[in-house]
Specification:
The complex is a heterotrimer. Chain B is an all-alpha fold. Chain B has 13 helices and no strands. Helix content of chain C is 49%, strand content 13%. The chains are: A mainly alpha, B mainly alpha, C alpha/beta.
Chain lengths: 293, 276, 454
Amino acid sequence: MERRTIFAGWKLPLLLVAPQLVLTIVFFYWPALVGGWESLTRTDAFGVHVLFVGLANFHDLFADPRYRAAILRTVEFCAAVTALSLGLGLILAVAADRELRGRDLYRVLMIWPYAVAPAVSAVLWILLLNPQIGFIGRFLASHGVNWDYALNGNQAMLMVILASAWKQVSYNFIFVLAGLQSIPKAVIEAARMDGARGWYRFRTVVLPLLSPTLFFLIIVDLVYAAFDTFGTIWAMTQGGPAMATETLVVKVYNDGVVNLDLGSSSAQSVVLMVGVVALTALQFRFIGRRSGT
Amino acid sequence: MRRSQNWLAHTVLILGALLFALPIWLAFCAATLDPAAIDRGELSLIPRLDHLGSFWDVLVHGGPGVPPVWRMLLVSFGMALAIAVGKIAISLLSAFAVVFFRFPLRRTAFWTIFVTLMLPVEVRIIPTYAVMGDLHMIDTFPGLAVPLIASATATLLFRQTFAAIPDELVEAARMDGAGPLRFLKDILIPVSAANLAALFVILFVYGWNQYLWPLVVATSPSLDTIVIGIVKMIGIDTSTEWNKVMATAVIALIPPVVVVLSMQRWFVRGLTEGEK
Amino acid sequence: MKRRTLLAGAAAAPVVAAPVVKVLAAEPVHITWWHSMSGALGDQVNRITKQFNAAHKDIVLTSVFKGSYPDTLNASIAAWRAGKAPNVAQVFDVGTGTMLAAGPAVKQIWELAKETGADIKPATYIPAVRGYYSLPDGRLASMPFNSSTAVMWYNKDAFKMAGLDAEKPPQTWPEVVAAAKVLKAKWADPMNAKGGPTRYALTTSWLTWIQFEEFSAIHNIPFASEDDGFNGLGAVLQCNSPAHVAQLQRFMDMEKEGTFKYGGRDSAPDPMFYSGVAAIGFGSSAGRGDIVRNAKFAFAEALMPWDPAVSKTPHNTFIGGASLWAMTAPHRTEAEYKAVAAFFQFLALPEQDAMWAQNSGYVPVTFAGDELSKKQGYYEKNPGTDVPIQSLLRSPVTPYTRGMRLGRLPEIRNILYGECEEAFAGKKTAKQALDDTVSRGNAVLRAFQKSVSG
């Protein structure tokens, strides 16, 4: 975050951050404050009866073993989706970064999944994996695999991980590729002349230069896995069977939008916010120290 | 050695392309089937080329309960463009300020913005709607786009990119007598061109695929986006004309792909190289 | 030429009377209706809107699709909180408890009728329909609209192949279990040996609604105390009675012997029936359109089976679907409420009700609409379409056959789904699963009770 060379003055920078600050305060903090207040109340959906209950919602939340199980489940889910999508994105981007014939075409082909609307992508995955009507699902079922994600929690989890990661690989691909592009050719050439080859060169030269991008992507992927996968999970399993695919954000939606339990739902979003802010701050520290900036 | 590596790269990319294309191809095939074939599980990987009429049909006439697709494409395009351009503009400026200046409350400002990275729209939809009501922005085009412009992802990316720019470059610019804004325009933006292009693509698609917010904030059918149209066509308690849904879904892919293609040139190495 | 002058004359007439007319017909009243009817049903809603506007020159009704049922409910709540609620909101059956507790946000039908002087009589509506949306004393709270009920669909071709009488579907649960065994041995197993998708004798959509809530009504036993919640917010679940445990055990046994296949929640298993994978499919009567379009075999619908060990005779089923609620907003005028009342009266017209039912696959909600369909010969031309109505009229409505009046019912359903899924996966016994449903569900009911009583 700290650099040696900076420009002087404070009026211009304030002017520059002002638009985003204003939008952020109006569209995030204001609603978030409302949500924060709601987390301290017990209220009906319409807000007709509002009762201040202090931290009771939070207390109930952490006393519930199902909530603790959901935290653990979400961590596993996020880790799997991030690892899978970032790993695949990295491999594909490194391959597409080479001077290949048909490179432009490859790049277009890599972005398709990202452009598919979540509602449609869930339908497509059901068409692929449903044990009765799905393309792959039927194949599995007729080859002795007991494929049934409506009852088997592990299979359901596997399916939502695959579908969620599939949609995010493109994102990783695009940014890793952009990151690779912005590494000056001269640096790579210099390393080559020093005799660094293949994997070694990649690990010692390319990866460190790519680390700001990768760091950005890890955060974005985690946030994606934690929040934006909601539509996919909801359309495929609605959090079931039992609660096998109920991640925290599915639970927030379930409790807030389906069950209309606004107090608990708000408390859950407050917990989510605090948790992820703490996590990111920690990561910032960690990365900041390692890369010595 | 290089040659064999190229083959490896081709193999990896082809496998990846297949993995990505399979579901899309499936959607394309489904668009050419009987309306009910999908519900019967009779999906095949061979499209019926004599049934391509469903594409033209939805484009001009729309589907059950939705306006013609070309209309919804326009709304989606406007919204996606507004979100992408708006987000890039405000994030570029704020990241520039945070990285290259020292000013009072700089850290506070950065964290104020950054913290919002984690606040998904699903959980704040009711309060946000209330705020929009107070601002008289419900059921307006700005109402569709503006709340989605405020987000921290782009700021974080620019901050990461800018932080990696060597001090020497800034020093050199200053020696040349370049002011901050000229530095931004002549050096910073060209240097981050690849990221800028990547971000534009991503944000355009992000805006393109919004569902929950447009659904809640817009009521008049003239503000229907293509994604809303697709969901409207998927039936509740009634059979769905899957061929029309899938045709619309495939058409909805075209604008993002065009955006990728037109951004392609910024992805190619060498363009920014000469200026470095 | 002549016609032209005639038209000119007609156009000129109001001009003369303009000063008087202006006061009366000033601005037309604008009202909005938020709904969840997508696809072909959305087209029907648009037709209704057009016809209503044509019949009422002084009112402009706009209908707007707001997504799934939960989406529409949420949009309506958000809008009410921002002072911009639609005049009419379509709310699904399980949201009724929430809407009844909404106090000033809604104007219940009896209130609306009293204030506007509109003549809306509950007796117009079929008891098993209106019961769901009425207060315990019979006053109507919301306007019945799209209503369906639980039926048993069966594949006649499969029945024939298995040597069962395709015209006489099983009537009781023991008969269903026995038929399922025959279907497995003589239809599913031989078919599976030939390849293709795995066939099953039986599946069910809406496991919680059909096999537990409707099951309770059919046997005239409570699903929850306080007459299924109609008499007060203090209701507790009673769906762990021996009859309910036996019902879950029945499905677990059938699953174990390979006659029953669990296909997921809500309507997700629907395709299993119409794609020919399951020979018997319990589902909503509203699924008819899908089945007609997709099934490549002869099929029929039958009344829900009952368990003679629990009740000697079967009782009526109640409805699922959604109703229309009149919502309030600041500065909403009396003219708007009058327009809403006029719209509700329009929907109850026999020809409107019959047309809606025939085009949508839902049941008619009024006696007159049902009669009209009968007179038009619709049921004769479409055999089986009167089964849902028969099911609703199978017996006089009792306190246990009106429907469910429980807060946060969607959540309770999800709890029941989850517990049943664990039972099917062999992780819990039937008794355990239902006991856990009751204790978890009661916690939800208490939380709801607290939240609406301030």
